[in-house]
Design goal:
alpha+beta; NADH Oxidase; 2 domains; 4-stranded antiparallel β-sheet; two-stranded antiparallel ribbon; globular; binds flavin mononucleotide
Amino acid sequence: MFGAPFGAVANGGHSFCEPAIVVPMRPPNPKYGAVGSPEVSALMSAVTVPKLTHRQKQQRPERERLTWLEAAKPPAMLAIMSVPFESLAELMRTRRTSMFVDNEREVPAKVVEQLCELAQWAPNHKRTWPWRFALFTGNGRSRLGEAFATDMVDRDFGDDAKRAKTLTKYLRTPAVLVVGCIADPKPSMHDENRDAVAAGIQNMLLAATSLGLATYWGTAPLIDSPRVLELCGFDADVRIINVMYLGWAVGGPDAPPRPPMTLQVIDA
Ligand SMILES: Cc1cc2nc3c(=O)[nH]c(=O)nc-3n(C[C@H](O)[C@H](O)[C@H](O)COP(=O)(O)O)c2cc1C
């Protein structure tokens, strides 16, 4: 694992030989339970500061010399970021809201599980871990549509055409992931939970894009549909933040152009 010139780069079980930026992390606080999968935890706890030979040190470009890291005392926990900025930026710009998918090709639940696991690495205030996930595939997608449509009738929401569309629209991609957010009696926490869920969703969208999956963030017809919440196995006060369509991409739409970015810098 640590045979590469700059020391090993541990990342989901893969080894990379690219130059790495190495960031020490605090060990997980047992108070908050295990972080990540057991495999990742085991990998992380096995990481020690790589010992480089003099020659290896000389071979590194100046900017990759990990001088401050080398000063860190083992057993520091390390997360090693090997993703070049431009690659990450390209991924962010490439992600599209798209339903151009191969509807004959299944999206395995295992793949979606990986995406949900990555959502958990988003920041969230007070560590409330507010996201909830339910995956619909096969006939489950029809049951999702029926549950929404039935509640739309009960609530007198939408017209007949909208309800009829709701019945079948989740069949447009092979997988549909409902992402919910837990409730909090405190309004500021309620909002911040939702912010955290949105941050988690973005993790998922980017990771899915990197795998070749098309994603589409859809708003639920009713964010508090009781039948859908029950079908998902969520608590009744969870709110649906995203009905995410997922499928293997076959092409994609052009990117909607972004407005010019402005940043105010207040320096004094
Ligand atoms: C909170 C939220 C809700 C959205 N709901 C819908 C939706 O119901 N229908 C839809 O077509 N797109 C929806 N979108 C996707 C946006 O339309 C899309 O992000 C936007 O057009 C920019 O396109 P891009 O994602 O390809 O960059 C939603 C996005 C967000 C963040």
